[in-house]
Design brief:
The protein contains 11 helices and 6 strands. The protein is α+β, with helices and mostly antiparallel strands and 295 residues long. Strands 1-2-3-4-5-6 form a 6-stranded mixed sheet, with helices on one face.
């Protein structure tokens, strides 16, 4: 039996995106609020948080997804006309898939759920033809598959990590993405400094490293930053008796590693770049899911 709540929300969602589409002045962003309302309307415990708009290139996925207060994964949205099979082959998505365990890719009509690098659901709920004709024609099978996809996504929990090898693997793949995000941010910061604008807090780390190693390349500095942050979070979690989060991480960094402590004072602040903070938070989630005393 098809969920009546789902049918009602799908109808409402169809009307909203149809009206936007037929006006013709839409962008990928035009559909975000209707999409957010749609997903949250399926279950009162579902919660989406929109990330700030990316200017270009790699940054945070478009939505963080929560079941109640528990983060379950991310959702990346593309425009209605985008071919998702082609998008899956882009460098951006490959990096997301490598680093994110629970991810939905959608063009607002088709939904693909990727779990630990593997496509486990692919559901075309609506079509452009439906929007152009203004008629909703969704089979019960499609509705059932879609609701199963969404339930599977929001039911996800990080598995408990009990081995050093598994923890090293999970941290390394996220540190790799953190390096790329830090490199992108540093390159933007260097341009800002040239133009007399204020750089991000990551630029302070770059300046500090340049004082020690004058000829260091920006990419090597970004790598050092990613490794330092990941190791610092590990130290903080080792010393934190409860759940760690970014705002309190600096408190649990030992005083005898001053350079790491200074970095974490920046990380805990509101000025920390949001296009990087999301992957730092994801590293913290991995550490919180680990039994460090047993490793």
């Amino acid at each position: 039996m098809v969920n009546k709540v789902a049918i009602g929300e799908i109808r409402k969602y169809f009307r909203e995106i149809k009206n936007i589409y037929l006006r013709g002045d839409y962008t990928e962003w035009s559909y975000r609020t209707p999409f957010e309302n749609f997903i949250e309307g399926l279950n009162p415990d579902y919660n989406l948080v929109q990330e700030p708009k990316r200017t270009t290139g790699l940054g945070a996925p478009d939505f963080k997804a929560f079941y109640k207060s528990r983060k379950v994964g991310f959702i990346e949205t593309k425009d209605l006309n985008e071919n998702l099979d082609r998008i899956l082959e882009t460098e951006q998505l490959k990096k997301y898939i490598e680093s994110i365990d629970n991810l939905i890719l959608t063009n607002y009509l088709q939904f693909i759920l990727i779990r630990k690098g593997r496509k486990i659901y692919d559901c075309s709920l609506l079509t452009l033809h439906d929007l152009e004709k203004g008629r909703l024609a969704v089979s019960e099978d499609k509705i059932s598959m879609f609701t199963s996809l969404i339930s599977e996504f929001f039911d996800y929990r990080l598995p408990t990590i009990t081995s050093a090898e598994e923890l090293a693997f999970e941290l390394s793949k996220r540190a790799k993405l953190l390096k790329e995000l830090a490199l992108k941010q540093l390159l933007e910061d260097l341009k800002k400094v040239e133009n007399g604008d204020t750089p991000s807090s990551i630029y302070d780390f770059y300046q500090g490293v340049k004082e020690l190693i004058k000829d260091i390349e920006v990419e090597d500095c970004a790598d050092a930053y990613a490794q330092t942050v990941t190791y610092g979070l590990f130290l903080a979690k080792k010393n934190c008796p409860n759940t760690l989060d970014r705002r309190i991480a600096s408190y649990y960094i030992p005083k005898n590693v001053g350079i790491i402590k200074r970095i974490f004072l920046n990380i805990s602040g509101e000025e920390f770049p949001p296009n990087i903070s999301w992957i730092v938070d994801d590293i913290i989630d991995i550490l919180n899911a680990s039994k460090l005393d047993d490793i």
